[in-house]
Specification:
The complex is a heterodimer of chains A (203) and B (439).
Chain A: H1 3-11, H2 15-34, H3 40-56, H4 67-88, H5 99-102, H6 106-117, H7 121-131, H8 137-144, H9 148-168, H10 181-195
Helix pairs in contact in A: 1-2, 2-3, 3-4, 4-8, 6-9, 7-9, 8-9
Chain B: H1 9-16, H2 22-34, H3 36-52, H4 87-111, E1 120-121, E2 127-128, H5 136-139, H6 171-177, H7 183-186, H8 193-197, E3 213-223, H9 229-239, E4 243-250, E5 258-266, H10 270-278, E6 282-292, H11 294-320, H12 325-357, E7 358-367, H13 381-438
Parallel strand pairs in B: 3-7
Antiparallel strand pairs in B: 1-2, 3-6, 4-5, 5-7
Helix pairs in contact in B: 1-3, 2-3, 4-13, 11-12
Classes of the chains: A mainly alpha (203), B alpha+beta (439).
């Protein structure tokens, strides 16, 4: 069944439909929050809060846009409220401070963290929604409440900025874990070869 | 060599993301295959996406389970469902609604400024109306003449006339009426009784008990015998020792004709005259009113008397002709001014007495309309149609101009309050939205 059909079935009283939706989106929503919070406990709480909001607002649900954009829209609003609350408590974190702790391979992704941190916040958010949360342009526009053309232009600028970083970054440092050193070397050599590619020249 | 790009770089990116329509995607694909520049761009973009996949996160913990429960009833909206608009149009709708409410309040306040009606006698002789009639004294401008008590010392009776019979005036009153005259030069002592007794003409005395009432009446009639109306009114006026003035007839047969006239009859004859006028046709409306001008007349008489006393005093001063030439000229000017005032007041007093003696009946008569199919009269049908069209167009233009003026008149106020209320309404709306979402 499609997401909309499951949601409408849950509206009609079918609890199993909600469980199916939960199973389908548990990981994506978790990953959405995990990439944006430093503490996994916060990500877990926000994920729970998102599905609770989905459950409690089910009667108001109308299949106007895709369910995916609806659910990620709720998640985005939950995240925004959490950030505002954190700011009021004085808990201000630097952009992507939480980034390093989220990855399995910190050594390999330090350059990526720095590159993403250097992006404009709006461009970074669109890039993450596209590359990691796999939302399409229309869904991103719905979640962020911006026009589709704005999504496209900001995403292009973000990718171009990362492309520049990609050609300028040195090879990452070797990891402490010996079991991963080979993988790290392979990745480093691969990236080194890629960085050897010259940028095209305009004719 | 220059390659013409039919597509911009963002479109290449959109093609890679699968965001283009199939037909367009095919075109971009064909171009990318043949264009080195776009091909390199596509390769770079793919590489960026590949590198971004290095950032992974752990799986969700197993304790993360679906919340229990079933859908809760929807929050009752306080706004109609039709207003469930996206954010920007919703704000516009709220702004327009706020402006409309403010406009209604402003226009209502403007309409409520109604002048109070004058007191009137109804047909049963009771006073009607919700506001006091304008005081004749105030209407004549003599409100403070006798009520401020200045210059009359002790023992003054009604209207300020001293009970001992002597006319006393505060010397400062003489100065106020005769600017330029200095009391110090002429030794005015403030007691002027002897001057009055030496033959100054007093105005017409008004008995303390006699009342002066100005009576007026309005009668609107309708009649079929319109041609006989003028003769009938003249007959009524003559019978009751009165006269007709201001007779005016309007309209051409077979159109409805109207007649307006003013009849003056002695006060004692007014009731009988009204009965006779009522008998000339069918009464559509009738009203009567009366103004008590006794106090006003008494005040006026006293002012005339005082002015004459002053005039006499100034005359006495001039007879002596002591003092500087400039002072003498000042006294002459003052005397001339006082004489002018006396003449004006005497004219007013006479008119007041005449009005009290003669009542005024305003009569309007309208002919009972009788439609005629034949001969529409001197105005042809075509002309009447054209006139109607022109009148209609003029009315439409007037109404449009009126509406525009009303909008322009209220626009600054509406704009001001829209600006003032915009921020607090928006804050309130955001809080409401947040509470709705978190619910």
């Amino acid at each position: 069944m499609t997401d909309d059909a499951l949601m409408l079935a849950f509206q009609a009283g079918d609890r199993a439909s909600f469980d199916a939706l939960f199973d389908r989106y548990r990981e994506p929503i978790w990953a959405f929050f995990r990439r944006r919070t430093a503490d996994p406990a916060d990500a877990e709480e926000l994920t729970q809060e998102t599905f609770l909001a989905l459950l409690q607002g089910a009667r108001r649900y109308e299949p106007r846009a895709s369910f995916r954009s609806y659910l990620f829209g709720i998640a985005f609003n939950v995240l925004a409220a959490w950030r505002r609350k954190s700011q009021r408590r004085g808990e201000v974190s630097a952009p992507l401070e939480e980034f390093a702790s989220a990855s399995h391979d910190p050594g390999a992704t330090i350059w990526l963290r720095d590159a993403l941190a250097a992006l404009d916040p709006d461009e970074r958010e669109i890039l993450i929604l596209r590359e990691y949360d796999a939302l399409d342009y229309a869904e991103i526009a719905h979640v962020l409440r911006v026009p589709i053309n704005t999504v496209r232009s900001r995403l292009f600028r973000a990718r171009m900025a990362l492309r520049e970083k990609l050609t300028d970054e040195p090879a990452p440092a070797a990891t402490r874990d010996d079991s991963e050193s080979a993988n790290a070397g392979a990745r480093a050599s691969g990236r080194g070869a890629q960085r050897a590619v010259k940028m095209r020249t305009t004719s | 060599m220059t390659i013409t790009h039919e597509f911009n770089r963002e479109e290449v990116m959109a093609y890679l993301d699968g965001e283009l329509a199939p037909a367009r995607a095919l075109q971009v694909h064909a171009h990318v295959e043949t264009c080195p520049e776009c091909s390199a761009l596509a390769s770079d973009l793919r590489q960026v996406s590949t590198n971004l996949r290095d950032w992974t996160v752990e799986s969700a913990p197993s304790r993360l389970v679906a919340p229990a429960g079933m859908p809760t009833p929807p929050v009752r909206r306080w706004w109609p469902r039709a207003l469930a608009l996206p954010i920007a149009p919703r704000w516009i709708a709220i702004g327009v609604a706020s402006a409309a409410v403010l406009g209604f309040v402003v226009l209502t306040q403007m309409q409520l400024r109604v002048r109070p009606a004058a007191k009137e006698w109804d047909l049963n002789g009771r006073i009607s109306g919700s506001a006091d009639a304008v005081s004749p004294t105030r209407a004549l401008g003599y409100a403070s003449a006798s009520k401020d008590g200045r210059g009359f010392g002790n023992g003054t009776g009604r209207g300020g006339v001293p009970t001992d019979g002597a006319m006393r005036r505060d010397p400062s009153q003489i100065v106020a009426m005769s600017p330029g005259v200095s009391l110090d030069n002429f030794g005015v002592n403030g007691t002027l009784g002897p001057q009055v007794q030496q033959g100054q003409t007093a105005p017409a005395a008004v008995s303390q008990s006699a009342q002066m009432i100005e009576r007026t009446g309005i009668v609107n009639l309708q009649t079929e015998k319109f041609d006989d109306m003028r003769a009938g009114l003249e007959r009524v006026a003559a019978t009751h020792h009165g006269s007709l003035s201001g007779l005016n007839v309007q309209g051409d047969p077979p159109n409805q004709r109207t007649l307006s006239a003013t009849m003056r009859v002695p006060v004692a004859e007014m009731d009988a005259a009204l009965v006779a006028v009522r008998g000339l046709g069918r009464v559509l409306q009738e009203s009567q009113s009366s103004d008590d001008v006794t106090d006003a007349h008494r005040d006026l008489a006293i002012r005339i008397s005082n002015a004459k006393v002053e005039e006499a005093r100034l005359g006495e001063i001039l007879k002596d002709r002591t003092g500087k030439l400039s002072d003498v000229l000042a006294v002459e000017q003052a005397q001339s001014r006082v004489r002018t005032q006396i003449e004006q007041m005497e004219a007013e007093e006479l008119a007041m007495r005449n009005r009290a003696a003669q009542s005024t009946i305003t009569i309007s008569v309208q002919e009972r309309y009788r439609a005629e199919l034949a001969d529409s009269g001197p105005t042809p049908v075509g002309t009447r149609l054209r006139n109607a069209l022109v009148d209609g167009a003029r009315a439409a233009i007037d109404s449009a101009v009126g509406a525009t003026l009303a909008v322009l008149g209220a626009a600054p106020t509406l704009l001001l309050w829209t600006i003032v209320l915009f921020v607090p309404v928006r804050i309130l709306w955001r809080r409401l939205r947040r509470s709705t979402i978190s619910a």
